[in-house]
Amino acid sequence: MTENILVICEQRDGKFQKVSMELIGKARQLIEKKQGQKVVALLMGDKIAELAQDLVNHGADRVVYVDNPALKDFMTEPYTKAACAVLKSENPDMVLVGASSIGRDLAPRIAARLKTGLTADCTTLEIDDETGELLMTRPAFGGNVMATIICPDHRPQMATVRPGVMVALEPQTKTGEIVDFDVAFETSDSNVEILETVMIAKETKDITKANILVSGGRGIGNNFAPLKELADVLGGEVSASRASVDAGIAYKDMQVGQTGKTVRPDVYFAFGISGAVQHTAGMEEATLIFAINKDATAPIFDVADVGIVGDAHKIIPKLVNRIKKEKNL
Amino acid sequence: MKIIVCVKQVPDTNEVRLDPKTGTLIREGVPSIINPDDLCGIEAALRLKDEYGCHVTAVSMGPPQTDVALREALAMGCDEAYLVSDRAFGGADTWATSSTLAGAIKKLGYDLIITGRQAIDGDTAQVGPQIAEHLGIPQVTYAQDIEKTEGNALIVQRQYEDRYQKIKIKCPALVTALSSLNKPRYMSVAGVVSAYDTKEVKTLTFEDLKEFVKEENIGLKGSPTKVKKSFPKQVKAQGVKHEVDEDDAVEIIVKKLKEHFVI
Fold first, then answer.
1. pTM (2 decimals)?
2. A37, A227, B135, B178: which has the highest count of C-beta atoms within 10 A?
3. Which residues of B touch A116 (CB under 8 A)?
4. pLDDT digits over B33-45, tens only?
């Protein structure tokens, strides 16, 4: 058993998901408490060897890659087999995985196979000063309470983390070990057949990358057009609470919150959002939060820097005009 | 085709509020519901039953009061329902829960297992894939469409963040259902009557599952993870709340945006 921290990195079509870099950044921070130990990155795919250096540049000391046609597209069994083979050989103390729709398919399968614990969607990862154990803190009960989970007697200690929660390091040209790891696949490993892949054309921009978010909830009703207008004059994007997504008014990829996306923009407007913990869990890290709600007791006001008790429908058009004037538009 | 649908009874976390003074959960009056993704799993199984005459069994692990959720599953049209319940199963994390459920499913027999993608009280999305691993069968998670095809196989539309795939999977297999998969049907009056009159919820205890799951793999003992502590979420220092008219509201917002050099 080593004391190393291994990050299972995710690439799709030869491009990294940014959560992989965020987790390497976090692993770097954690490893400071474990002197002489390494951050190891695991890279899997087909013809991906040349991607390894990028992981070193983002902070990995060692990259182990499995390059095989069986890993061309994500499939549960070949990826689980490859990851388990590498984990058995590398023997890390901790394993971090991005909580993407792939990570959340793969990580539980690996943990079940290795008979070890897995903590999903952690928002804080720390190392216990006394025991050296990984303290994995996550929201529970729809984000209403936080729970710190440990995995005392099984190794590796495994955690998934959602995109946007940790912060990646600025890449620098570095040198690190890069190791080609061979896994023998059998045809029976590919136990499902991918018949067709359809890319979804993005109707909205990636809200996790926006500096300004104008978000609407139940109090906005079924017309998001005014929010879009405000977002446009501010150069921001429109996002939504679960209520608006469930009601079919906003798209799922616009959803902020525990079951949506975690965002940390410079400015966040919450119009007509009551502020259930399910929602605030995904936005409370924003630098400046405006909450506009008719209900003076709405919990959204507890996380807001500026709260306005009032009618969003009346305020938004006036605000748009005022900002246009300010910007000479 | 024999379908097992896994169901979890959960508190409706949308209805949960925190006591603003103590920061603790107000559990009183929070209704218990069938986890929304699981309801879509039941519906998906029932649609396969309607079309192909499959046999649908609902299975849930939980305390005795989970009976209500399983009666609801029967009322919707499931043929059988089993409650996996025993003190020995208590305190299980996802690893032990999935090994226990896998034991029950092995005992009952199956071609297809449908679970919800995740439950709203834990949001882990781990139990489905871990059941599949314990049974050694393939899985497709995040299903937004399920169709049956020849040779005891399914074509599942699997959702990703940026794409979807049509995946062919041969039974025995496990599929996890998204709530975008379908719109679950309501219980029919006749269904409710039969759920309480003619159908029954059968209980499976550890004694019943002994052959199928080892004692070291259940309950608290079989759980690699432990809860070290839980605590109320820290509330951010409160900002200023203004009760003003629209024009003043606009001025307050604009002033703040200027202070932060946004405009």
1. 0.84
2. A227
3. 95, 224
4. 999 999 999 999 9
